[in-house]
Amino acid sequence: MRRTATPEPHARETDLLAELSAVYREAEEVFHGWTCQASTECCRFGVTGREPYVTSIELAAVRRAIAARGGPRALQGIVRASVTGAPEQAASAGEPSRRRALPQASERRCPMLTDAGRCAIYAARPLGCRTFYCDRATAGSPVRHHDVTRLVRKVQEVAARHEPGGDLGRPLTRALADAGPGAGGGPPRTSGAARARRGR
User: Fold this and answer.
1) Mean pLDDT of the 83-109 span
2) What is the pTM of this model?
3) From 196's CA, which of 11, 132, 148, 151 has a CA 20 to 30 Å away?
4) 3-state secondary structure the chain
């Protein structure tokens, strides 16, 4: 009896990441014409009270992007070294920035947010970071709730094939902490389609 070869885990993940990228491209089409002022408010979870929930395949994309930047330690250096030209420094002379006035612990900023106000892994950012939920966003083509829900479900479907329970979202910072420097997994995830794009 002839056996069917099982794809190597890394190759299989690469294929699933390609599917995820296709969903991300579809999200760009859905949100065509939408822009934001790069206030980075949505990247300051303690300020907004919102944080993107990620599935296992989105977390894999984030971790590969971090690895491509040299790993967690190198990423921390990139985040700290990018202070030149930071939006906080662009305020009028003698006018303190409201964002800078808040302690970082209170801001609970995304670990991928550089001091220059840029995402260090922008191309790999999760679906929840692509939905322009901020009130500062400038609307483009109308987006129906159904369209966003459909994108969430597509990401979950890919994640469910990535690993058991991979379609159940967790807050980004918790997922990164649970995964650790070299391993995936962690405690049971929080379920629900809306959780995949918390507050979006």
Assistant:
1) 49
2) 0.72
3) 11
4) CCCCCCCCHHHHHHHHHHHHHHHHHHHHHHCCCCECCCCCHHHEHHHHCCCCEECHHHHHHHHHHHHHCCCHHHHHHHHHHCCCCCHHHHCCCCCCCHHHHCCHHHHCECCCECCCCCECCHHHCCHHHHCCCCCCCECCCCCCHHHHHHHHHHHHHHHHHHCCCCCCCEEHHHHHHHHCCCCCCCCCCCCCHHHHHCCC
